[in-house]
Amino acid sequence: MKCPFCHHEDTQVIDTRALEEGDAIRRRRRCAHCDKRFTTFERIELLMPVIVKKNGSRTDFDPAKLRASLMLALRKRPVSAEAVDEAIHRIEEKLLSSGAREVLSGHIGELVMRELKRLDKIAYIRFASVYKSFEDVAEFQDAIAEVGPERKSP
């Protein structure tokens, strides 16, 4: 590690600590040449896969777009912000753990549908109707049948 003051390449680590979150290490260093001290941080760098859209174009993964899609489907539904954050985290974890460098946008849509099905059945139907481009009532009925048993009349 080069010294940020004199650019000498000989520095010594004099203290190492893990940060409270456990996702980074803080190192206190001393330059052997100018004797000045400085701090460095070591973090894991994970790259989300690139999203391949239906038209073949590629775009960076954007968690804000993911949140916006979920929030639109969940609009006026009794789902906490914490539950939405956890759903987004699960989707991001699945994408990261896949190890893929590229992922089809359709795969992300399926992950969103799976999370919405867990969070709120109405939001799931809302999202599915747009995502799957329902064209008639039968497709709505199929989606409704998928999320729960029919109620029997007395």
Give a concise summary.
This protein has 154 residues and is α+β, with helices and mostly antiparallel strands. Helices cover 43% and strands 20% of the residues.
Helical residue percent band:
40-55%
- The overall pLDDT average reads 87
User: What is the percentage of strand-forming residues?
Assistant: 15-25%
Distance between the termini: 76 Å
Coarse morphology = elongated
Strand segment count: 6
Uncertain segments: none
Largest β sheet strand count, sense and barrel closure = 3 strands, antiparallel
Count of alpha/pi helices: 5
Number of structural domains:
2
Spell the H/E element sequence. EEEEEHHEHHH
User: From the alpha-carbon coordinates, what is the Rg to the nearest angstrom?
Assistant: 24 Å
Output the structural class: alpha+beta
Q: What strand line-up does the widest sheet have?
A: 1-2-3
Could you please describe the fold and organization of this structure?
The protein is of the alpha+beta class and 154 residues long. It folds into 2 domains: 11-43; 50-147. It is 43% helix and 20% strand. The strands form 2 sheets. It has a 3-stranded antiparallel sheet, with no helix packed on it. Strands 5-4-6 form a 3-stranded mixed sheet. A hairpin with a 5-residue loop joins strand 4 (50-52) and strand 5. Helix 1 packs across helix 2 (81-98), helix 2 runs antiparallel to helix 3 and helix 3 (105-119) packs antiparallel against helix 4. The protein is elongated, with a radius of gyration of 24 Å.
